[in-house]
Amino acid sequence: MEETHRHEKTREKNKSLKRKKKNKFTCTQCGKSLASKQSLGYHMRVHTGEKPFTCSQCGKSFRESAKLIKHMRIHTGEKPFTCSQCGMSFTDSSNLGRHMLTHTRKKKHRCDQCGKTFLIESYLKRHLRTHTKEKPYPCSVCGNSFTRQDSLINHQKIHTLVGEYMCFECEKTFRTAVHLRTHARIHTGEKPYKCSHCDKRFSQSSHLKKHEMIHTGEKPYTCSHCDKRFRRSGHLKTHEKIHTREKPYKCSHCDMRFRQLPHLKKHERIHTGE
User: Which one has a higher pLDDT value, 52 or 13?
Assistant: First the structure.
């Protein structure tokens, strides 16, 4: 009986060793051990530089299909990861995870200009540029400057990317399918966004949000000089020129300058006689 039990234990041990040996796949380049032949195949691409998954929109290649799927969302505008707290959507789970911290962590970094608080010091530094008007990221092609690096990257696509999505009605091209769909509503007359306060409808969600502020009285843009509030960022920028005395619009016929373009056009009629 004891002999049989010993044989069974030996048999089980041998089986276990065989499984371990079977599941051990070693990279000949760096000695790393992988659990499966497939995992070893993926890993070998690090050494060979092979990138078999290519984006059909821009030609960029990837080692893994999952990374191509994630990249394609740049072109499609898809954001499948949604925050359960506030409804914001993201292209990948890691960005959603970072965002979720804004709901759970205590914000420690406070802006001494407006009192707004931030989780991370770098976010505060970025926010401070709204007060200082600093734009440290210039475009090397056209000279336009931006407060954020991601804004610069998005802007540079204007210079480097060719529109891949074409409207069959007017042959205008767009960089993403989302932009094409939005544009197509000009031709179809589709207005899928309805105001919850009245019967007015809009072709874009951003236009609906601006309109709804009329009903709610919301004015999210605050002047850093006098605390006056505005519904639109453009109105705030125009207003702040009163404080800065900035007059960027110069008459081409004389030396008079104006804060607003309509004022310049009205003035120039004196010279042109229109």
Answer: 52
Find out whether 240 and 225 touch, Cβ atoms under 8 Å: yes
From residue 15, give the alpha-carbon distance in Å to each of 12, 21, 23, 35, 157. Answer: 5, 10, 12, 17, 58
Residue pair 26/32 in contact by the 8 Å Cβ criterion? yes
pLDDT digits (tens, 9 = 90+) for 54-67: 888 777 888 888 88
**169-195: per-residue pLDDT in tens?**
887 877 777 888 888 888 888 888 889
Q: Where are the domains of the chain?
A: 39-105, 191-272
pTM, entire model: 0.35
- Whether 39 and 46 have beta carbons less than 8 Å apart is answered as no
Q: Superfamily for 191-272?
A: Classic Zinc Finger (3.30.160.60)
Q: Do 63 and 45 contact (CB within 8 A), yes or no?
A: yes
- The CATH number of the structural domain formed by 39-105 is 3.30.160.60
